[in-house]
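Input record, target 12 of the design panel.
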């Protein structure tokens, strides 16, 4: 059989094959770039969704005291998600105390009473506020606003000696430490985990 394909035809086919291989490489590069873009979009979408969920369950605790209608200390969750109390330290003059009884004794001396509510281990719902400590006189009456009452005047002044350090977490496991009370504004800082209980841990 006689080969009728000319040498010129065979030479001309070589560039065509090269063009085909080059186009295939371009297609592979484009497909890779498209895949990377899709991966980035997916990761960003997951991040945005995570931030939205985080914002939807973000707790914000506030610890404060007031002198009206009586002298009392409150802990409130101003956030939009539950606050899980993991660890509490309460101090008087910078010295840790174990319970509210020690607080009232350090401030008013022995013989005075108080209404108390636990903070440690408590779960504060969004918007919940709780009176955690209300000092009382020897007749078990709350110290109502009365500038003529020496006991009210003393407690109203000395309540600023009390400070609290409260570590709490969201339902996502993100944690913060609130430092509040006294005469300075409260601060909240994010932390990886709450402290483990120790000798200075508040028991209520």
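The sequence produced for target 12 reads:
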């Amino acid at each position: 059989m006689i080969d009728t394909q000319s040498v010129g035809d065979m030479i001309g086919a070589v560039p065509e094959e090269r063009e085909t291989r080059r186009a295939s490489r371009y297609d592979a590069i484009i497909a890779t770039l498209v895949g990377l873009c899709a991966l980035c979009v997916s990761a960003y979408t997951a991040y945005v969704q995570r931030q939205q969920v985080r914002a939807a369950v973000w707790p914000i605790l506030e610890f404060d005291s007031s002198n009206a209608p009586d002298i009392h200390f409150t802990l409130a969750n101003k956030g939009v998600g539950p606050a899980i109390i993991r660890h509490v330290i309460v101090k008087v003059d910078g010295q840790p105390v174990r319970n509210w009884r020690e607080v009232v004794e350090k401030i008013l001396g022995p013989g005075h009473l108080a209404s108390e509510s636990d903070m440690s281990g408590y779960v504060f719902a969004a918007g919940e506020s709780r009176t955690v400590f209300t000092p009382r006189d020897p007749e078990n009456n709350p110290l109502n606003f009365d500038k003529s009452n020496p006991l009210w005047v003393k407690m109203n002044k000395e309540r600023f000696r009390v400070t609290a350090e409260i570590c709490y977490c969201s339902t996502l496991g993100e944690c913060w430490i609130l430092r509040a009370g006294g005469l300075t504004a409260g601060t909240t800082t994010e932390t990886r985990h709450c402290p483990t209980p120790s000798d200075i841990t508040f028991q209520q």
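The two ends are 104 Å apart (CA to CA).
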